[in-house]
Write a structure and sequence with these properties.
With about 280 residues, this protein is an alpha/beta fold. About 55% of the residues lie in helices and about 10% in strands.
């Protein structure tokens, strides 16, 4: 715009030959151009940005190759993969990914694997935006919390943060069949919190279903620890950790979950709107 204005002003002497003031004609052209820009170009730009942020038609090419690292995505049919990809792009568009460690770069792979993990959990929903959480904070390794006075591998903050140790995230993805996955675990906490926050997904878990889930947690918490049990004992900490541990197994080893705990598995399918074994 500046260069355009300079061009007009430098060539405005021709208006003097017509008996007009030196800058009047150029200024009129500039004002007309600005009016067109404000009335048509800028609104179109805002409209396209809004559509792209909320309804992306596809996943951008640099991201696509990394989705193949997710077994859940690889099992989908071609039409389902397109839907999964669009949801991943929307998550990336709507979140701010922030590096919290010196030298740690938030590249395409980090973004798409974090977003893909979020969509694994919520693929059964027509739309699940994690609307309350707009920032993803990523540390290289375990990090020290000044609030809890201890080291963490990940957490979900009600101020709108999802916090992850990238080393722990990668460790969880290295074995996608053991039912232990930091990314799924922390994003499951965010999913459960969305159930309590007034937005699009408020109370997506019905009261009767939540009561059934609470009873399942109480029954699990009362059992003795057994080596090799499907659900690890950390799920006994509270109902929030129980939900996160269930989600880890729901995504990573659904067949074992259904075989060993069919009623709880069916309840998870109902709450998360999908059956990973029959998608």
């Amino acid at each position: 715009m500046k260069s355009y204005l300079l061009f007009l002003l430098q060539n405005s002497s021709r208006y003097e030959d017509l008996g007009e003031p030196r800058f009047e004609g150029a200024l009129g052209v500039v004002m007309a151009s600005m009016a067109i820009f404000m009335l048509f170009v800028l609104p179109s730009y805002w409209l396209w940005n809004g559509i792209w942020a909320n309804y992306p038609p596809y996943l951008r090419a640099p991201y696509r190759q990394f989705l193949r690292e997710l077994p859940f995505y690889r099992r989908l049919q071609p039409k389902q993969k397109k839907s999964f990809e669009r949801k991943v792009q929307r998550f990336i568009n709507q979140k701010q990914f922030i590096s919290r460690s010196k030298g740690l770069r938030i590249d395409h792979r980090k973004k798409v694997l974090i977003a893909g993990t979020a969509i694994e959990l919520t693929f059964g929903f027509k739309r699940f935006d994690f609307a309350h959480f707009d920032k993803i904070l990523v540390y290289s390794n375990d990090y020290y919390s000044k609030i809890s006075k201890r080291y963490h591998r990940g957490e979900v903050d009600l101020r709108g943060y999802i916090v992850l140790s990238w080393a722990a995230f990668e460790e969880g993805n290295a074995n996608r069949s053991d039912g232990i996955n930091l990314g799924i675990h922390e994003l499951a906490h965010a999913v459960k919190l969305e159930n309590k926050i007034t937005n699009r997904n408020y109370r997506f878990i019905s009261k009767p279903d939540y009561r059934m889930f609470y009873n399942a947690y109480k029954a699990f918490a009362a059992t003795a620890d057994e080596p090799g049990a499907l659900l690890r004992s950390y799920g006994k900490t509270n109902i929030h950790e129980f939900f996160a541990v269930c989600c880890e197994n729901f995504i990573e080893r659904p067949q074992e979950f259904e075989d060993q705990m069919p009623k709880l598995y069916a309840l998870m399918c109902k709450m998360l709107r999908m059956n990973p074994l029959r998608i």
